[in-house]
Amino acid sequence: MYRKVIAILFLSFVSLFALSAQSDEWFWNQPISKIDFNGLKNVKKSDLNGITSSFINSPFTDETYNELLDRLYSLEFFEDITPYAKHASNDSSDVLLVFEVVERPVIKSINFVGNHKIRNGELREQIKNKTSDIFIESKVLIDERIIRNYYLKKGFNASYVSHKTEKTEDGIVVSFEISEGSSSVIREIKFTGNSIASSRALKRKLALKEVGLFKDGAYQSSTLEQDKQTIIKYYQERGYADANILDVKIDTAFNEEKQRDELTILFMIQEGAQYTYAGLRISGNEVFTEKELLKQKKLKEGQIYNATKFQEDVAAITNVYHENGYMMNEFYPVPVKDSDRHEISYDLTIKEHSRSHIENIIIKGNNKTKEFVIKREIPITAGDTFSNDKIINGLRNLMNLRYFSNIVPEVQQGTEGNLVDLIFSVEEQSTSSVNFGITFSGATEASESFLPISLFAKVENSNLFGEGRTVSAGTTLSPNEQSIDLAYSQNWIGKYPIAFNAALSFSHSRPTGLKNFWTPNLQLIQNNYYMDYNDWSITLSSGLSRRWTPDYAILTLAGGISSSLQKNIFDESINVPVEAAISSYANRWGISNSIYGSFSVDNRDINYDPSKGWFASQRFTWHGLIPGLEKEFYLRSDTKLEGYFKLFDIPVTDNWNFKMVFAAYTGFSAIIPVENGINTKNAIYVDGLLNGRGWSDIYKEARGLAMLSNRVELRVPVVPGIIGVDGFWDAAAVKSKLSDMGSLGIEDFYFSYGPGIRVLIPQLPLHLMFAWRYRIEDGKPKFADTPFNFVLSFNIVNY
């Protein structure tokens, strides 16, 4: 704090008298056009942009300066900060604010002393500090606690951790000194007094486990307390409202051979009688009727009492008030037991208060992302009535940005009884990515001599300058296709949720097309002989979309335009294409244009990794705008519908749930040609990557003007937000004309199924699958000759 005082005095006296002497306090209330730093060595300037960028163009005042200085010191990167102001340019009204900083030293190395049972590498994975990080004493103390907790988790209850530091010319050497003590493992868990629940059933519920081949059996006293509550909850969910743990006895025996304490834990249980539920009586409610409050109740009168369901009913009543802005209400449930009839009922007294309003919306943890980028996604502002639904919608919008690994909303009491502060604490994740790799696919127009291998590379920043803008550059290289793609997008224009995108691409490919062939007897054949040609194109596209966010879904209306220059190179003296669309651009540049319009409804909880909800969209694209210059005129329709349902979500550890999500998708695409037909490459086909996955070698036969694509998946996140496994089943069918869809039968479909690995990192949206393929012939499945196909696809998010 004294450094901040010194800095303020320095600015007030030195800058005011030394610098402003030239221009009579020229910098006060002038716009800050630039903020710079001198003395940065280990701290990157980009790490500071998230703080400083929000102050650019703000008037230079005491309040502005103090807030900026507070935020810089809160980073704990600097030992000292000395500010001064000067003219940013020839314009005397521009302020360049410069901070002369002295950085804290970096961590040169991290050592562990005294650890014999747990390896250095294992401990290094747990701590937050890493070599070359800025040394901050408070963060080292946090790592001390992390190491201690890790030892407790492993059963070393007598462990002790401290640290010491050594200052060197290259930085700070941090040494964690560990006294491990002996470990404690659970040899046996026993129960007494349990008659309606078996010991085996109770053991399965406990977090503590007996030591075994695949279980370390580590004992933790904090976990024991949790397990006591788990046992009581188990009984209370089955009607035993008086269930209790009378005592827990722990016998300890030291194992000389393994040098550890081995424990026998005995839970002494009092079960009591089983109760039925006799109902809930509510008093004090004037805003809502009893019928409105009990609309979503789960526990019915006459059922076996379930404490968990009752608490959910009380939470639902509380939520009715919260959704309507009544945050300060008080709820007092009192149980009424009839021991003779073994019935339990509750008297719920509600003390109502006036509606709460938002006093402030506070954002914490955003070192890069500007505050306005976060606040504009939250559909509630200061002064609004508190709304739980709007907060949930804001949370969904923020998660969909993919800027944050974690978002925690909190509500705190404001300056008055009916005012609350809404706090969003965010943990930022990397929004820059460099992706490169190899894609295997047969979905190409290349001749059979080409290997179906593509090299791809892409560089993207989805939060440029912390302002919510996305820029990307990518390239694809394969024997038959090369492309360079540049793209820019932003989700807001000013204060309005209007998204803008633009893209420029250069591509070259070597597709094949049918050619006219005359036999020696001058018979014309148009469906058997192919020609190779070089297709060069340059495409510029742009689009706008408007979003609305009512409580039930995100509604999006979008439109855009695309223009391409195209040239097909081949020897016209030898090859005569069957398709007019190929010959129209023969050895000359031609133009093709398209416009599209779409509408979508998005009810998914998180669009890139949904657990529940649904999505529906309809898009129409018209190709061909200039008669005489363009050769292809047709309408394309794309309809998509997808849904997600959580089958189960079972807590396994404190940080991981065993969860399975059922996902289903159906899509229908159709093309209606207007004139001269369409180029084969613009036809709809089974690509083997996104539809009919695994069928990557049928791009010629499975091609037409209408396609129905279906898929279902069972998804299991293994490491949430990182990686998951799934099983899939696909069915896709293509018809040469839209009218043929009326005769669609099961034998028209290409089926595939198999397991997959899904990368859930937004910057690396890969999907690896093993696909077994089959078709139905004569009412029976006939499998493809190859046992399975390996597919490397992408997690494409529909918008």
The rough form would be described as globular
Oligomeric state of the chains present here: single chain
Please describe the biggest sheet, giving its number of strands, its sense, and whether it closes into a barrel: 17 strands, antiparallel
CATH superfamily of the largest domain: membrane protein fhac: a member of the omp85/tpsb transporter family
C-alpha termini separation? 49 Å
Number of domains: 6
Domain POTRA: 105-181, 184-270, 275-353, 356-429
Organism: Treponema bryantii
Protein name: Outer membrane protein assembly factor BamA
Pfam families: Omp85 (PF01103), POTRA (PF07244)
List the topology elements:
Layout lengths: L1 H18 L12 E7 L7 H7 L9 H13 L3 E10 L7 E9 L3 E7 L6 H7 L10 H17 L6 E9 L2 E9 L3 E10 L6 H7 L15 H16 L7 E12 L4 E11 L5 E8 L6 H4 L13 H17 L6 E9 L4 E9 L5 E8 L6 H5 L12 H14 L2 E10 L5 E10 L3 E9 L12 E12 L4 E9 L3 E10 L7 E12 L2 E3 L2 E2 L5 E2 L4 E3 L1 E15 L5 E16 L10 H4 L6 E13 L10 E11 L9 E19 L5 E19 L8 E2 L17 E2 L1 E14 L3 E13 L14 E10 L6 E12 L2 E4 L5 E6 L5
Parallel strand pairs: 1-3, 4-6, 7-9, 10-12, 13-15
Antiparallel strand pairs: 2-3, 5-6, 8-9, 11-12, 14-15, 16-17, 17-18, 18-19, 19-20, 20-25, 21-24, 22-23, 25-26, 26-27, 27-28, 28-29, 29-30, 30-33, 31-32, 33-34, 34-35, 35-36, 36-37, 36-38
Organism: Treponema bryantii
Subcellular location: Membrane
GO cellular component, one term: cell outer membrane
